[in-house]
Amino acid sequence: MQFRLSILMLLQFALPGAMLPLYSMRLKELGFTPMELAMCCATHGVGALLAPLGAQLADRYFPAEKCVAVFSLLSSLFLIGLAYAESLYLVCLLTLFFWLLTVPIIVLSSTICFIHLKDPEKEFGIVRLWGTIGWMLPGWILLALVRIFPNNNLEGHANEQFIIGSIFGFLVAVYALTLPTTPPSPSKVDKFAPLGALKLLRGWPFATYCLCTLGVFITMPFTTQGTPMLLKYLGIVQPWLSPTLTISQVSEVISLFFLPMFLLRLGLRGSMLFGLICWTIALYVLSVGRPVGLVIPSLALNGFSITCFLVTGQIYVNMQAKGDLKASVQSLLTFVQGMGLVLGHIMIGLLRSNSQNASNMREELVLAFQVAAVINGTLCFIFYCCFRPGFGKKSVVEVK
Predict the structure, then answer these.
(1) How far apart are CA 241 and CA 394, in angstroms?
(2) 87/40 Cα distance (integer angstroms)
(3) Among 41, 71, 156, 331, which is least packed by CB within 10 angstroms?
(4) Closest by alpha carbon to 299, among 311, 284, 282?
(5) Is the pLDDT of residue 7 over 80?
(6) Sign (positive/negative) of CA torsion 164, 170, 175, 180?
């Protein structure tokens, strides 16, 4: 079962992995202003905000694997549309529909894994590792096609990568239907599952984690919008842009492999704090913005932050959920992430708009990255002082 769920992760993460890394470059090539670009990117957050509705369907009405299949099919169609759309309103609308479907896919796939794995606290990290590999695949496939077939008019642009990602979406739609069923779990107590999940916020550790997650996702848009532009300014050519960004995923794969060791040595709290510190350092390096020999290696810190803070956080959140609310508790976290994404995308759009008189792209992005680094540094302090999960120094691997 672990192998089959790993394939699910591999295929479904290729869908957003094809779209997100080069999305800001695509919009910049279309001539969008910083605020227009920010508005389109903020639809990612809107999709996360509405993810609890998808979880409600899976928790209460329809099998999760069928929801994943339908959502993946529709997401692929919208991604194909994004490959050819050029007007602001059409791009914004297609992107919104894409994320409204893709974010629930990620939430529900994690839920399927937690339900069907025999020991999810130990096994989920390895299964999730294959999702990271799937995220990298579209960019490397496109680079390989450009190199193998140099005369086929492929130039490594974002719209070409979108088409590759849509193929993976169709594969997810078919493959999800072959998985064991994950039926809904109707409850006579909490008819609306997300409201039941909100009760967890009464616990101080969970509330602190949600607050820090909100802050992290406010700073993430600074990198998803700004890093591709900074790398291109520093001389990374278009076909290599997406593969260069996968340095983050390579380090994520490595750190996911060593996640049990992190949890054993550092514990739940220490692992998540380490992830926050890595993210703060990465943002500080991006705020300097040169030389390229420093900026590119700093991308690896992103992978450690995702594994140690976000993936470990998924395990922590799953441990807080009772049986019939697992999808909605995970989606509650996704809702918090969505609020952060919307705020972060708008914030970097405003900061870039105020810096448009800068002499180059690096100078335009410096202030934005500095603000993000300060925000995340503050989160490190809050998390260190306030997050006490009650496990002591026990590893989450040891907690049953």
Answers:
(1) 41
(2) 11
(3) 156
(4) 282
(5) yes
(6) positive
360 SS3 class: coil
Listed residue (65, 101, 66) closest to 82, CA to CA: 101
- Greater pLDDT, 307 or 398: 307
The half-sphere exposure of 319 on its side-chain side, counting CA atoms within 13 A, is 22
On whether the CB atoms of residues 316 and 121 are closer than 8 A, the answer is no
Instruction: Give the alpha-carbon dihedral of 282, 283, 288, 291, to 10 degrees.
Output: 30
Residue found under tokens 């799953």: 318
Cα 352 from Cα 372, distance rounded (Å): 13
How far, in Å, CA of 122 to CA of 250, rounded? Answer: 21
pLDDT at 373 over 90: yes
C-beta separation of 229 from 369 below 8 A: no
Residue that wins the pLDDT comparison between 153 and 228: 228
Tokens of residue 191, six digits: 């008819």
In the chain, DSSP assigns E strands to none
d(CA 169, CA 328): 23
Q: For every residue of 7-73, which 3-state class applies, written as one string?
A: HHHHHHHHHHHHHHHHHHHHHHHCCCCHHHHHHHHCHHHHHHHCHHHHHHHHHHCCCHHHHHHHHHH
Gap between the Cα atoms of 164 and 157, Å rounded: 11
Of 49, 17, 24, nearest to 39 by C-alpha is 24
Q: Show the tokens assigned to 335.
A: 């809702």
Number of residues that make up the chain:
400
User: pLDDT tier at 3 (50, 70, 90 boundaries)?
Assistant: confident
Residue 392 carries which side chain, given as an amino acid letter?
G
Sign of dihedral through CA atoms 112, 117, 118, 122? negative
Mean pLDDT over 350-358 rounds to 80
Q: How confident is the model over 284-337, as pLDDT tens digits?
A: 999 998 888 899 999 999 989 988 898 888 778 777 766 656 656 766 777 788
State the pLDDT confidence band at 174, using cuts at 50, 70 and 90: very high
- The answer to whether 40 touches 95, Cβ cutoff 8 Å, is yes
Which of 29-38, 50-59, 113-122, 361-370 has the lowest average pLDDT? 50-59
Per the structure block, which two tokens stand in for 138?
């579209």
Sequence-ordered strand ranges (E) for 133-267: none
